[in-house]
Design brief:
Blueprint lengths: L1 H125 L7 H33 L1
Helix pairs in contact: 1-2
């Protein structure tokens, strides 16, 4: 029976050691399970975030497509407006050039008429008599001066329009 007791004591001693080791392993396992559980929860959270980001990305891509479509439409409209403005500006430049030519021509005539007017004004001072054509010439000169003033006004308007179109 002694032999059995010795085995029994030895058995109890081995069981106590194994029980102690089992307890240590359970504690280690519990310590390892906490981070594992946290990692699993974090993974689930990240997966949910990824799904939400994918939805947001899809939505953003759709919105970008819509905005790009509107941008293309707006660009086409703007190009049409620019072409119309360029055409109008070219027409105004042409008109301004014509008006400059008219103005230049009228200025030469005006200079001549002013000289004639001065000559007419000087004649009475010199004691000369006026001819019957002088009132008609004076009326003609005044009419030409009106045309010159009108041409100058048209030139200013054209220059202002041209400047506003260039700005």
């Amino acid at each position: 029976m002694m032999k059995n007791n010795t085995y029994y004591i030895c058995y109890l001693h081995v069981c106590a050691g194994l029980s102690s080791r089992l307890q240590d392993i359970k504690e280690e396992n519990a310590q390892l399970e906490e981070p594992l559980t946290a990692k699993q929860e974090l993974t689930k959270s990240h997966e949910a975030s990824i799904r939400q980001l994918q939805k947001d990305l899809s939505s953003s891509k759709s919105e970008v497509s819509k905005v790009e479509s509107r941008r293309v439409e707006a660009l086409a409209a703007t190009n049409s407006e620019v072409e119309a403005l360029v055409s109008a500006m070219d027409a105004l430049k042409t008109q301004a050039a014509l008006n400059e030519g008219k103005l230049s021509s009228l200025q030469v005539e005006c200079t001549s008429l002013n000289q004639e007017l001065q000559d007419m004004e000087v004649r009475p001072r010199r004691g000369k008599t006026k001819s019957t054509d002088e009132p008609n010439q004076l009326t003609q000169i005044q009419a030409w001066q009106g045309e010159v003033d009108h041409a100058r006004h048209a030139q200013r308007d054209a220059e202002e329009k041209l400047a506003s179109m260039e700005a």
